[in-house]
Write a structure and sequence with these properties.
The structure holds 2 protein chains of 2 kinds.
Chain A lengths: L4 H21 L10 H6 L6 H12 L2 H14 L6 H26 L4 H9 L2 H33 L12 H17 L2 H28 L3 H18 L21 H18 L3 H8 L4 H10 L1 H11 L1 H6 L11 H9 L2 H39 L5 H25 L6 H11 L3 H9 L5 H19 L1 H4 L10 E4 L2 E4 H22 L19 H11 L1
Antiparallel strand pairs in A: 1-2
Chain B lengths: L3 H8 L6 H7 L17 H23 L2
Chain lengths: 540, 66
């Protein structure tokens, strides 16, 4: 194999393009980037269209391009849970997020942790929420880095990637990502998201039309996929030794009740978790009106459709003349085997930029959390806005190192499990954040104990195979509960909720009092944007 | 504020948002092969269709003021 100059040139061309856009972005809708509200929320100025691009660019990630098709490649129908997941997330958002947006706007909150602190009068609970947000973002950023890494790997012939050069693609991915977030804050991803969306939509349309034509139609693809699967299954390191693994054997349909439980809990758990992530909240909070959020629940499913079509690439990969060795390589194999070199260069650029945008937003969001709710809260209560913004930039860089550690130390066997691990953690903030929007009945200490129990039990479930010391054991996506494989996030959330509900009256009775709720019912009511904005603008 | 009673009334429309949950979280409804669409089993194309239907539902609720 030789280096393909055309393919690499096209890849580099698109990166130069977005770099130029990144610099322009710093000047776009100019605000003072030395302020956290500006660097990290772009001054809450985004309307429906920009929010659509930003949220689309932010929520549909390497998970969509690499991990989901990979999961379909290895396990068929179960991997398709990402479709119900990305359907169910929007009805949830339609109800919950406008309320969240309103209270944050009215009281000037930038993070979920800000809200929890005021709602439950508990700085420990606020710290727990902030910590969880940061932790859960790490494997998700790692997944993005992995996506960029596999794209770069695909461009370079394997003989150049041996010995000390083996990690060059990961290193390049890391550097691109770090360099690119640092300078212009949230404005850069918002503008580059536009380029990303056009590229990715092009890729998806071409892929779902051209690839089936080349492979003899969908009926043929599904037939060959079924026939090929035993060959693949024998190649995949499935580590089923301990017998605690879900029925991940490939099937085109959900064959057992267990498979259905896994499918639905993975979908529902992921849907409940998505908008608890700091980066999703950031996308919501940077919009200029709560109706922008509602409109987007009808517009964002366009990307879900894209995700569903991309998931079918998993089957197409199974029908390729030369079978990819792993699920993680499924999409790359389709691209390199089916497309001409020039289009492959474009496709890999689309995937890399598609991973870059969310990774940037994720690290900005997690950095906001650290700065507002850890650094300023506990170390420098009187720090200036400028210092705040500097700390956010530096911590966004450190977070990427954290993500790098995940790739190095946690098995990337089925990369989708990185996202699922993030879900296991972030969903534990659901009781104080989402339920907190509707009630302050919960006792703060009960919420804290519930959170801790959820975090610990969820982590133990996800890492149980690794902790047992099974060689090459992967992260577990589901865990057997009463003999049924249940998404660990879902099971651990139940533990969390039960404890929060049961302990609330007990703690109240023994004198561990609830905190003071400083929000008022009026803070959750809709205030039309027109009447507020001129005042805000005037105040600068 | 004058429109409060009306808003409350429309909020009951939000119950419609339970529909996609009922359908998608009960796989026996769509867990089969036939009818195929351009060679894609029902399981897959039906769920893709639900994406579009749910988007129409949220759009309708938005315009209805729920």
């Amino acid at each position: 194999m030789k280096i393909d100059v055309l393919e690499i040139s096209i890849f580099i061309f698109f990166f130069v393009l977005i770099t130029v856009i990144g610099f322009v972005a710093a000047r776009w809708r100019r605000g003072d980037l030395r302020q956290l509200n500006e660097w990290g929320l772009a001054g809450r100025r985004f309307g429906t269209v920009v929010t659509w691009f930003l949220l689309g660019g932010d929520l549909y990630t390497a998970y969509t391009f690499i991990a989901v098709p990979g999961a379909v490649f290895t396990s068929g129908a179960i991997g398709f849970f990402a479709v119900p997941y990305t359907v169910l997330v929007y009805p949830i958002i339609f109800i919950v997020m406008p309320k969240f947006w309103t209270v944050c706007k009215q009281r000037g909150y930038i993070t979920a942790s800000d809200f929890v602190k005021d709602r439950f009068g508990s700085s420990s609970l606020a710290l727990a929420v902030a910590f969880t947000g940061i932790l859960a973002t790490l494997p998700y950023i790692a997944l993005q880095m992995f996506g960029i890494q596999v794209s770069i790997q695909a461009l370079i012939p394997p003989q150049y990637l041996t010995g000390i050069f083996a990690d060059v693609p990961l290193f390049i991915a890391f550097v691109i990502l770090a360099a690119y977030t640092y300078s212009s804050g949230l404005r850069a991803p918002a503008l580059i998201a536009l380029v990303k969306d056009v590229m990715v939509l092009t890729l998806v349309l071409v892929a779902v039309i051209y690839v089936p034509i080349r492979l003899g139609g969908f009926a043929h693809i599904f037939a060959v996929a079924t026939a090929h699967q035993p060959v693949v299954a024998s190649k995949i390191v499935a580590a089923k030794a301990a017998g605690v693994y879900p029925p991940s054997a490939f099937t085109i349909f959900l064959k057992t009740p267990g498979a259905m439980v896994a499918y639905t809990t993975l979908a529902l758990g992921s849907a409940l978790a998505l908008f608890l992530y700091p980066h999703s909240m950031l996308g919501v909070l940077s919009s200029n009106d709560r109706n922008v959020v509602k409109r987007n629940t009808a517009l964002l499913p366009i990307y879900s459709l894209m995700l569903g079509l991309l998931a079918l690439l998993g089957f197409m990969a199974l029908a390729l003349p030369k079978l990819p060795a792993t699920g993680n390589g499924a999409v790359v194999a389709v691209i390199t085997q089916i497309f001409p070199d020039w289009f492959a260069g474009f496709a890999f650029a689309a995937i890399s930029i598609g991973a870059l945008v969310p990774a940037a937003v994720m690290s900005i969001a997690a950095a906001n959390l650290f700065t507002r709710n850890v650094y300023k809260e506990y170390f420098r209560p009187n720090c200036t806005e400028r210092e705040e913004s500097e700390v956010a930039k530096i911590s966004s860089l450190l977070l990427k190192f954290g993500a790098l550690l995940f790739i190095i130390f946690v098995p990337t066997t089925n990369i989708i499990s990185f996202q699922l691990l993030g879900g296991v953690w972030i969903i534990q903030t659901l009781p104080p954040v989402f339920l907190g929007l509707y009630t302050h009945w919960f006792n703060r200490w009960a919420l804290l104990v519930g959170w801790a129990a959820g975090m610990i039990s969820g982590t133990l479930m996800a890492f149980s195979a690794i902790l047992q010391g099974i060689p090459k054991a992967p992260l577990l996506q589901t865990y057997p509960i009463f003999g049924m494989p249940v998404y660990a996030a879902f099971a651990a959330l139940l533990v969390n909720l039960v404890l929060a509900v049961v302990l609330t009256p007990i703690f109240e009775a023994i004198g561990l009092r609830s905190g003071k709720d400083v929000t008022t019912p009026a803070d959750y009511e809709y205030a039309p944007v027109e009447s507020k904005e001129p005042i805000k603008e005037a105040l600068g | 504020m004058a429109s409060r009673p009306e808003r409350k009334n429309r909020n009951s429309l939000r119950l419609l948002l339970l529909l996609p949950f009922i359908v998608l979280l009960f796989p026996p409804i769509y867990n089969f092969d036939q009818p195929e669409l351009i060679g894609i089993p029902f399981f897959y194309w039906f769920q893709l269709l639900v994406i579009v239907l749910t988007a129409i539902l949220t759009a309708t609720l938005y315009f209805a003021g729920a």
